[in-house]
Amino acid sequence: MASRRGYPSDLSDEQWAVIEALVPAVRSGGRPEKHPRRAIVNAIFYVVRTGCSWRQLPHDFPPWQTVFWYFTQWRADGTTDRLHDALRDRVRDAAGRDPMASAGIVDAQSVKGADTVGAGSRGFDAGKKVNGRKRHIVVDTMGLLLAVIITTASVQDRDGARTVLDRLRFAMPSVVHIWADGSYAGTLTDWSRDRLRLVIEIVRNRWGSRPSRSCRAAGWSSAPSPGSSDAAA
Predict the structure, then answer these.
(1) Cβ of 54: how many Cβ atoms within 10 Å?
(2) Per-residue pLDDT tens over the stretch 53-98
(3) Handedness of CA 197, 95, 107, 230 (dihedral sign)
(4) In this predicted model, what pLDDT tens digit does every residue of 109-136 receive, in sequence order?
């Protein structure tokens, strides 16, 4: 760690201290770890931040095969989710909020698929004119992620919402109120109330009944992407 220059994506000592206890020990057949956990995490952050392929991981990190193995292992055993949830709770607590959110915002965003994305996992969003995938997300009023699913871009927002809200019910059962834009109006509101006991409020503008994509009460001034929403009330 100390023998190489750091990258901007590397964890600081303070940041590593926050998550160290949540990262499983790196072992191989009971032998002592060959590559420190912090080096593995920094390598994963480098790939996520730069968007490079695993094979293009700089050589001063552990071998890309090793890093990728731990990435898939930690994702499968829930380590990634536990890290995310712990950090989200920490941010909410620092802001004087209960870690268990009571309200959220649902939205969907289509993203163009890379050339490496197979035809079976991509679709065409006719409204956005995007061929790729779509993420359906629920965030809290601070813009912090509560639940997410990925579908083909051809899946309608309302259809994807059923799955992501169903997941939300298990991930954050304290949520009782959801804000949404006009694309979620219709039968979804009844389904959510009857099946999940979630009230969906369709946000409308101040001049009439036309659905709006602005909800200042929820800290939502555009698409409620994690980390991009305004300060909440």
Answers:
(1) 14
(2) 999 999 999 999 999 999 999 999 999 999 999 999 999 999 999 9
(3) positive
(4) 998 877 666 677 788 888 888 888 899 9
Q: Is the model's pLDDT at 211 over the cut of 50?
A: no
pTM score, two decimals?
0.79
Between CA 86 and CA 19 the distance in angstroms is: 9
User: What 8-state DSSP symbol labels residue 12?
Assistant: P
| Residue 3: both structure tokens together | 């023998």
Structure tokens at 28: 């191989």
Whole-angstrom Cα distance, residue 93 to residue 100? 10
Q: Is the dihedral of CA 16, 17, 23, 26 positive or negative?
A: positive
DSSP assigned state of 5: P
Q: Biggest alpha carbon distance in the chain?
A: 67
CA dihedral 46, 48, 53, 57 (to 10 degrees): 10
- Pairing mode of beta strands 103-112, 177-180: parallel
Q: pLDDT digit string (tens) for 184-203?
A: 988 999 999 999 999 999 98
Q: What is the dihedral of CA 59, 65, 69, 75, to 10 degrees?
A: 60
